[in-house]
């Protein structure tokens, strides 16, 4: 729903070769000694010959359109003198040069003076017809067909050159909009920002936008109208998608209603951060989101006015691209697209920034929001979301399907390697998509894409309606499942309600590994479970029994709780200060990449931390940075028990590793640890769990502080 108290437009006139023209304007506009010969044979159909001399586009007026025509001809003549035309050689010297511009400029000044005061007109040259561009709003001129003349201070619209200083009645900031009356549980306030680089003819500038796919053949009016339609379509789709089981319950209440709280439009190119490349490209750069957010005064919008999302409407540029979604929060960067904690201002409140392409349609905009949903839900409980809600997807999926994801509907297969298989009529699957349950399989249905009319947008909406929403009635781990949309509409409010109550700080987890139950003896209930095709087995350990981690994806995954259930205890493993320790016996064989992972929460994909035996020496990495890893000096012999420990202190940036209680190596790594949604794992690491310990491990402990050497010694 679009709410406007007063629409604010910021119009910035962009003329080609700006930095060439402006010095000339400065040079000539203020000169009074420019002399020129009048052209007596100039034709005119509305202007007298004196002014028609400068009317190069024959529209019975003298304005910037004539200048644009002359400038283009001037450039053409500079490149190829054979294009000479007497019509543009105003001083008749056989060249098209700056002297001609001087003549045109003086005649334009005379014409403008005549329009302002008829007593200033050249003899016999009174002008009666309204002319757009003369700064006088008259005749049939309106703000729509001649905004340059008809902008008036006091009309309630801040536009053109008006500022809070020159026209405070129009440009004072809007009061925050109160939440409208709605039947939705939440109102999501949006700041909508559009960038329109316009050429001198009033169309999208093809020197700025990348029009390889002919997406941007639009005038300013056309693209603005399209953005209006995109906003309307996106709002309605997101709202409909928040109705839990709306596909079968017409009386269900929607969880969210979207309100455009602030709307800004800039007739200029979107800011570019030329210090940030798009992945490894040397020629494509990223949108400068800090510039945009600072211009909006984003922290005031978020912290004081309650804005939750920023929708940026833009384009694919010649040398620039943008992220689908970006998230800023004091709880960490949970962005789908980019985990750069410096690319957005961090406010007291959290907010999401989407950059939508107005060359495309509503489906692509919904697609971008879909991926951000996946990131948030995965952050809240990766096991519940990925393994239970999404389930197996793609051509190799087997058994009962669950709900699928953005790229793969439940019956979707590979399509050019990326999914996007929303119209697959050939594949039928058995799935509880319409009756999903978190701990069991719900009532299944056999279907193909006709369930959503084989329509991409309808699938997006139906998937969202399967997300546990308002009054879902589901039970998970003995508790009522909350409305998942609460974490989208009120992320900070929900996070503030999280329970973090470990019983024995600073010791967060202690796994004695006495049996295959892998229970946490710290009292914090961070119990483990064996995972992988190769079994974790119980063996004789350093103290009692121990665990042996085998090949490939063999590992012990730690249950960190579920933030969906407002249990955030697992977030303590995302500490910026920690100690890991364990007894380890490495095998007499090489691990994958010579990296035998001991304990990790992170990988090359998810960052975080990883303690391992690397090239037969103890190692600790932060943010997968091998160049700044702490590596010990002691070579660890095969089939020998060692007490290994690693610490990190964020205030000093020091990484330290200890062998049998003695400091064995140090390194320095400044900056925060960047976490995403990797699991806490004993005996393996990496996105695909392909760095198994391939050895034995016992007495594993994790502390949320960097212990001293003496403290570590006390655990031997």
UniProtKB/TrEMBL annotation:
SUPFAM superfamilies: Concanavalin A-like lectins/glucanases. Residues 576-710 form the LamG-like jellyroll fold domain. It comes from the Bacteria. SMART domains: LamGL. Pfam families: Laminin_G_3 (PF13385). Keywords: Disulfide bond, Membrane, Signal, Transmembrane, Transmembrane helix. The chain crosses the membrane at residues 12-30. Coiled coil: none annotated. This is LamG-like jellyroll fold domain-containing protein.
């Amino acid at each position: 729903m679009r709410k406007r108290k007063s629409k604010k437009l910021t119009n910035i006139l962009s003329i080609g070769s700006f930095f060439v023209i402006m010095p000339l304007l400065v040079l000539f506009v203020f000169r009074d000694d420019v002399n020129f010969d009048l052209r007596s044979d100039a034709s005119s159909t509305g202007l007298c010959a004196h002014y028609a001399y400068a009317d190069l586009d024959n529209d019975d007026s003298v304005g910037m359109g004539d200048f644009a025509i002359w400038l283009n001809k001037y450039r053409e003549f500079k490149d190829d003198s054979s294009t000479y035309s007497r019509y543009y050689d105003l001083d008749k010297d056989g060249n098209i040069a700056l002297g001609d511009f001087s003549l045109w400029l003086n005649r334009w000044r005379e014409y403008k003076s005549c329009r302002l005061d008829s007593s200033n007109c050249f003899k016999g040259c009174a002008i009666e017809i309204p002319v757009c561009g003369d700064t006088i709003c008259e005749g049939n001129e309106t703000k729509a067909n001649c905004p340059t003349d008809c902008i008036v201070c006091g009309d309630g619209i801040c536009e053109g050159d008006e500022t809070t200083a020159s026209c405070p009645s129009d440009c004072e900031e809007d009061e925050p909009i109160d939440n409208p009356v709605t039947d939705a549980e939440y109102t999501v306030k949006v700041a909508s920002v559009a960038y329109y680089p316009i050429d001198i003819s009033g169309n999208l500038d093809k020197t700025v936008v990348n029009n390889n796919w002919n997406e941007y053949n639009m005038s300013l009016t056309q693209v603005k109208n399209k953005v209006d339609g995109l906003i309307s379509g996106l709002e309605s789709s997101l709202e409909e998608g928040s109705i839990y089981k709306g596909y079968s319950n017409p009386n269900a209440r929607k969880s969210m209603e979207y309100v455009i709280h602030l709307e800004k439009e800039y007739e200029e190119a979107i800011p570019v951060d030329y210090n940030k490349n798009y992945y490894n490209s040397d020629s494509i750069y990223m949108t400068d989101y800090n510039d945009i957010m600072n211009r909006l005064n984003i922290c005031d919008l978020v912290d004081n006015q309650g804005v939750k999302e920023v929708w940026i409407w833009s384009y694919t540029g010649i040398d620039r691209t943008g992220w689908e979604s970006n998230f800023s929060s004091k709880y960490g960067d949970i962005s789908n697209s980019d985990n750069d904690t410096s690319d957005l201002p961090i406010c007291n409140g959290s907010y999401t920034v989407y950059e939508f392409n107005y060359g495309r349609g509503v489906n692509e905009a919904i697609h971008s929001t879909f991926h951000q949903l996946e990131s948030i839900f995965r952050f809240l409980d990766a096991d519940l979301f990925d393994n239970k809600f999404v389930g197996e997807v793609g051509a190799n999926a087997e058994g009962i399907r669950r709900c699928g994801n953005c790229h793969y509907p439940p019956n979707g297969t590979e399509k050019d390697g990326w999914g996007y298989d929303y119209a697959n009529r050939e594949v039928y699957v058995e799935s509880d998509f319409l009756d999903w349950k978190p701990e069991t399989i719900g009532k299944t249905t056999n279907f193909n894409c006709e369930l959503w009319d084989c329509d991409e947008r309808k699938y997006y909406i139906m998937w969202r309606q399967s997300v546990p929403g308002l009054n879902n009635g589901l039970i998970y781990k003995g508790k009522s499942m909350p409305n998942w949309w609460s974490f989208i509409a009120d992320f900070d409010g929900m996070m503030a309600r999280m329970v973090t109550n470990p019983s024995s700080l600073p010791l967060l987890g202690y796994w004695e590994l006495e049996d295959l139950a892998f229970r946490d003896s710290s009292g914090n209930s961070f119990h483990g479970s064996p995972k992988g095709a190769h079994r974790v087995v119980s063996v004789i350990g350093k103290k009692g029994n121990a665990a042996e981690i085998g090949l490939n994806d063999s590992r012990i995954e730690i249950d960190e709780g579920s933030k969906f259930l407002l249990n955030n205890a697992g977030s303590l493993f995302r500490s910026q200060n920690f100690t890991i320790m364990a007894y380890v016996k490495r095998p007499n064989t090489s691990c994958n990449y010579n990296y035998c992972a001991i304990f990790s929460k992170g990988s090359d994909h998810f960052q975080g931390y990883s303690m391992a035996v690397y090239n037969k020496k103890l190692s600790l990495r932060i943010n997968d940075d091998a160049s700044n890893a702490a590596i010990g000096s002691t070579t660890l012999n095969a089939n020998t028990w060692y007490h290994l420990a690693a610490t990190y202190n964020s205030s000093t940036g020091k990484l330290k590793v200890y062998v049998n209680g003695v400091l064995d190596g140090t390194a320095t790594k400044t900056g925060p640890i960047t976490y995403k949604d990797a699991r806490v794992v004993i005996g393996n690491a990496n996105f695909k769990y392909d760095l198994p310990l391939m050895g034995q491990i016992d007495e594993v402990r994790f502390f949320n502080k960097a212990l001293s050497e003496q403290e570590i010694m006390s655990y031997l």
